[in-house]
Design goal:
With 136 residues, the chain is mostly helical. The protein is 79% helix and 0% strand. The protein has helices at residues 2-18, 24-36, 40-56, 62-77, 86-103, 109-135. Helix 1 (2-18) packs parallel to helix 3 (40-56), helix 2 (24-36) runs antiparallel to helix 3 (40-56) and helix 2 runs antiparallel to helix 5 (86-103). The protein is globular and about 45 Å long. The two termini are 14 Å apart. The relative contact order is 0.16.
Length: 136
């Protein structure tokens, strides 16, 4: 299942950098961090942020810093909260997407953050079901 999420990350990296304004890479990292829960995800977030900045023709490093901070905060909260739950995914993806869209000056940030949160919950639900079926 992790490989499918990594492939989805590559697809969302291309789509966000060229076609859409939704923070798809951030959504993928929320789901990846919840399922992988290792510090190795920080290295992937760093390089994905660099590639996204290059695709979107922005200053290199801004997205990497944002993604690294978001992944680190999720990893820190895993000890205090249950991060593998729908409310956490909904709230974390909404707040993170809203911050991302405001920081990088996108129009209609609130609406895009709501759509991003819904996509994150759907992706998380599909991933949970796939992992449960694979383990049984």
């Amino acid at each position: 299942m992790v490989y499918i999420l990594l492939i989805l990350l590559c697809i969302s990296l291309f789509l966000e950098g060229t076609v859409t304004t939704l923070p798809l890479v951030f959504i993928c990292f929320v789901c990846l961090t919840i399922f992988i829960r290792t510090p190795a995800i920080l290295l992937i977030a760093f390089f994905a942020g660099m590639l996204l900045d290059a695709f979107a023709i922005r200053a290199i490093g801004g997205t990497s810093i944002f993604l690294l901070t978001a992944v680190l905060l999720i990893l820190l909260y895993q000890r205090k909260y249950e991060i593998n739950s729908y409310p956490f995914v909904l709230i974390a993806s909404f707040i993170g997407s809203l911050l991302f869209l405001i920081i990088f000056n996108y129009q209609n940030s609130f609406g895009l953050a709501v759509i991003s949160a819904l996509i994150a919950v759907i992706l998380h639900g599909i991933s949970r079901i796939a992992i449960q079926k694979a383990s049984s």
